[in-house]
Amino acid sequence: MSAPREEPGPVRLAGLTRDEVTRRVGSLAQVARVEQVVEADGPARGARRLRLVTGGGLELDVLPDRALDLGALTVHGVQLAWLAPAGFAAPGLYRADDFGTSFGGGLLVTCGLDHMGSPVVDGGRRFPQHGRLTSLPASLERAAVVGDELVVEGVVRQAALHEEHLVLRRRIRAGLGATWVTVEDTVTNEGWRPEPHLVLYHANLGWPLVSEAAGLDVSAERVEPDGPDAVGDPWHEVTAPEPGYRQRVHRHDLAPGTGRAVVSNPVLGLRLTLTFPTATLPVLYQWKMFAPGQNVLGLEPANAPAIQGRAAAREAGTLPVLAPGESVSYSLRFAVDRIPHEGRSPAAPPHRT
């Protein structure tokens, strides 16, 4: 049974109700569908990819061989997610010792499930940058239009002999005729010992949404720079690409309730809103990397203030631990809506006479 819709009123597709649309098409797939393909060339060869087309202007790639993470996102024909230079290589090319060669970007990279942040050695074991979950293929259980939603479900098992046995069950939902998508996760310790559990949802936004016309708002109670390069940096400002720019990270401690991060671009006429419950994701890390050829804004809800990794979190007393059989659930919602246009298109060069 599908979950309740997240927008009021009946489904609308091109201004018509679903019943009116089905009278006019041979198949609903003419306007909304979940496509399944296998990459045929390059570093991604052999990797699975799903494409969700809602019929309301949203098209989203889901990557089963990247732990069901999210790739390219377009809304009304505009690309909103940032794609890294390395691209989405097949898992067999993943290099745990060199994060930059394996990081594909996309709308969402899930970091964890037992470590986040820079590589560390903890208890004699080396943990790669941001953990290894995103290198693991999922077992796909469903990918279809279900009721008034497009639904993808699957399981990712992060396990090692004599070590952790953590299982991620993920459901992705996108509204039929809508421009929102939710990610709903449950992480369970299926092992026989308590396990450290860290997760960070690395959402990556890029041009043309991320341009000097854009602004950021976060529902934070307190904002702290994380590292010397962020000291004195106006965290809410988005600037043009600048040679020599050094990445900057800010930590947002969120008010109880619903965490919210909003990127608005009035020149583009679009706004992206990320929401999530702070009961399980109380912190948001913000990554700014506005160097030429990169130009990415990262919004990264996390289950603990632990960007330095599990060893530092343990020492600080902030390391979450799952008991055997214990589960914890997370959810994120990405919603895109139109706002009034202001000025020229961000894709157009300034007028010169």
Structure description:
This protein is mainly beta. The chain has a single domain (12-338), classed as Beta-galactosidase, Chain A, domain 5 (Distorted Sandwich). Helices cover 3% and strands 44% of the residues. The chain has 2 helices and 25 strands. It has helices at 18-22, 310-316, and strands at 12-13, 16-17, 33-38, 48-53, 58-63, 69-75, 78-79, 108-113, 120-122, 125-127, 139-146, 149-159, 165-175, 180-189, 195-196, 198-205, 215-218, 220-225, 248-254, 258-265, 270-277, 283-289, 296-302, 321-322, 327-338. The strands form 6 sheets. It has an 8-stranded antiparallel sheet with strand order 11-12-13-14-25-21-20-17, with no helix packed on it. A 6-stranded antiparallel sheet has the order 8-16-23-22-19-18, with no helix packed on it. A hairpin with a 4-residue loop joins strand 13 (165-175) and strand 14. The protein is globular, with a radius of gyration of 20 Å.
Offer a concise description of the structure.
3% of the residues lie in helices and 44% in strands. It is mainly beta and 353 residues long.
Individual helix count: 2
What's the CATH first level?
A: Mainly Beta
What is the number of strand segments? 25
What is the total domain count?
Answer: 1
Terminal CA distance = 61 Å
Low-confidence stretches: 1-5, 346-353
Order of helices and strands: EEHEEEEEEEEEEEEEEEEEEEEEHEE
CATH topology label: Beta-galactosidase, Chain A, domain 5
Radius of gyration, taken over Cα atoms and rounded to an integer in Å: 20 Å
